Amino acid sequence: MFKTSSSIVNLQEHVREVIFSRRAYDAMLNIVKNRYPLEACGVMFGNVSGYTATVVEVEEIKNVLESKYRFWFDVGEWMNSILKAKKRGLEYIGLFHSHVRGSPIPSLADRHRMLECPEEIWIIVSYTPEEEVDVTAWRIDDWGSSIMKLALSII
What we know:
Blueprint: E1 17-20, H1 22-35, E2 41-49, E3 52-61, H2 75-87, E4 91-99, H3 108-116, E5 121-126, E6 134-140, E7 147-154
Parallel strand pairs: 1-3, 1-7, 4-5
Antiparallel strand pairs: 2-3, 2-4, 5-6, 6-7
């Protein structure tokens, strides 16, 4: 069976920065643009070292709500993605999804979902064809009382 990833335990207490490989970042933006005007969603994989989570791969998972204003996914599809990535030696970093209304700030629904897995990093991509893409990284800071915005860069 699979052993528990040590990077996901207490991740919320350590990660301060998210670094995307250019390939993973471009793949995420393509997913978002292809799903517009619906909210897109997916998972991120890579590794965690010290205060930095590095994303080297993203995978789209279906937004089962098929909504312009909300997203959620099939838990089985999410779990299968994580298990396949673990077989390739990648760690689960968290989720990404898009906002099509112009703000990369977590909505109230996002914040409630973030509480379900406080170790996850959440990336929100604000996208409309008329505006510039705005991408932000978030995590629950101390088991639910606050949300922390993380530094984000692309290499």
